[in-house]
C-alpha cells in the first residue's frame, strides 16, 4: 500500500534517512516497514529566519498492515497511469496542429504516443535556428516577422529563465513534468515547489520532445504559416499553409495570443471564438545575492537553498 505523507519539516542538513524516519513517525510504523519512498514535493520555509526548514511530501510504499496515520497529513495513494480514451470514429486524415509552443508540443506528443502521427506546422524556425535569430534581434534590433521572441519552436517562453508556473490544480500537470524530465529536464522539477528547468536546458528539452514526436511517426514543419482554414458544411476539411493545401478533419489551434493575422483569417472564415484574458507583468531584476540575503538572511548561500 502506498501513502502520501505531507508536512515533513526537517532542518537544512537533513538526509534521506532523516526523511524516512520522520515519515515513519507520522505513519505510526517502524522505518524498516517503509519498503521505498519518493519525494513528491520539496519546499523551503524561510518565515522564521534563521530557523529555515525544508518541508517535504513523500509517497511511501508500506510493508505493514498496521498503519496508524496521524491526522490529515497521511492519505492513501492510488498511483494509476492516466489513459486517454480514443473516439469511436476513425480519422480519415491525420490531425493537424498549428503552433509548436507548449500547447502544440504536448498535444502533438500525446497524439503521437497514441499512434495518431500528427502533422505540426510552426510559422517560426526550429529552436536552434531561432536562437541565433533572436540573439541578432537583441543585439541590433533586426526583427524577423516569422521567427522572433514570440514565434518559433518552443513558443514565447523559450527565452525565459525556464521557471515552470501554473495556477491550475490539475493532476495532468504531473504528466507534463514527467515528460519534460524524460526529455532532459532536471529530475528535481518533479518535486520542487518552484520547478526550474533553466534556459539552456529548456532548448534541449524542446528539441528532444520534437524528435520523440517524429520518432513516433509525427511530422513537424517549420517556417510554415497557417494561411487559411477550409470549412464545408460547418466542418473543417483542411488548411492552407506554406503554399500547400492539406486535407484534415481535425485541426488543433495552439497559436498563442500574438498571431493576429491568424485570428483575422479565422474571423473571416466565419469561425466563432472568444478572447482569453491574459496578464501583463513587470520584470524587475536584482542581483541574485541581494535576493538570497533578503529571503534567507544569514543562511544565504547555503547549498540546500
Number of strands: 11
Our count of helices gives: 7
Largest sheet: 4 strands, antiparallel
Level-2 CATH architecture of the largest domain? 3-Layer(bba) Sandwich
How far apart are the termini? 33 Å
Strand content: 15-25%
Reading side by side through the largest sheet, how are the strands ordered? 2-3-1-4
How many structural domains?
A: 2
CATH topology of the largest domain: FAD/NAD(P)-binding domain
**CATH top-level class of the largest domain:** Alpha Beta
Q: What is the name of the CATH superfamily of the largest domain?
A: FAD/NAD(P)-binding domain
Care to describe what's here?
The chain is globular. It has seven helices and eleven strands. Helix 2 runs parallel beside helix 5 (199-215). With 305 residues, the chain is an alpha/beta fold. The chain has helices spanning 16-27, 102-113, 127-140, 172-182, 199-215, 260-268, 288-296, and strands spanning 2-11, 34-45, 53-62, 74-77, 96-98, 119-121, 219-221, 226-232, 235-241, 244-247, 251-253. Helix content is 28%, strand content 22%. It starts with a strand and ends in a 9-residue tail after the last helix. The mean pLDDT is 90. The strands form three sheets. Strands 2-3-1-4 form a four-stranded antiparallel sheet, covered by helices on one side. Strands 7-6-5-11 form a four-stranded parallel sheet, covered by helices on one side. It has a three-stranded antiparallel sheet with strand order 8-9-10, covered by helices on one side. The protein has two domains: 2-77, Alpha-Beta Plaits; 96-268, FAD/NAD(P)-binding domain (3-Layer(bba) Sandwich), CATH 3.50.50.
